Amino acid sequence: MISFKISRQDKNLMRKQLEEILAIQKDLDQKILNYQQESAVEEYQGFWQELGQSNKDSIQRVSRYMVRKCNR
């Protein structure tokens, strides 16, 4: 595998973009939780829970990538 150095400017740009994505995902996480709590149907609550877990997994994936690849 060939590795090359990524410029600080490119890392900073990527980090800024990922921080924006994380903010959106965290807002989505809160909305999913609210909808789950508002739902009276058990099947729907289960779906919201699964969707929320998937979003949390995505948040963790983006966060880990940002730390590893866009470190300061």
Write the layout of secondary structure elements.
Layout: H1 8-38, H2 42-69
Helix pairs in contact: 1-2
Task: Describe this protein's structure.
The chain has 72 residues and is mainly α. The protein has one domain. Helix content is 82%, strand content 0%. The chain contains two helices and no strands. Helix 1 runs antiparallel to helix 2. The model has no long low-confidence stretch (mean pLDDT 94).
As a whole number of angstroms, the C-alpha radius of gyration is: 17 Å
- Principal-axis shape: elongated
Number of helices in the DSSP assignment: 2
- Helix share, percent: over 70%
Number of strands: 0
Strand content: under 5%
Structural class call reads mainly alpha
The biggest beta sheet, please? none
Task: Report the order of strands and helices.
Answer: HH
Assembly annotation: single chain
Report the end-to-end length measured between terminal Cα atoms: 24 Å
Give start-end ranges of low-pLDDT stretches.
none
Name the average pLDDT.
94
Number of domains: 1
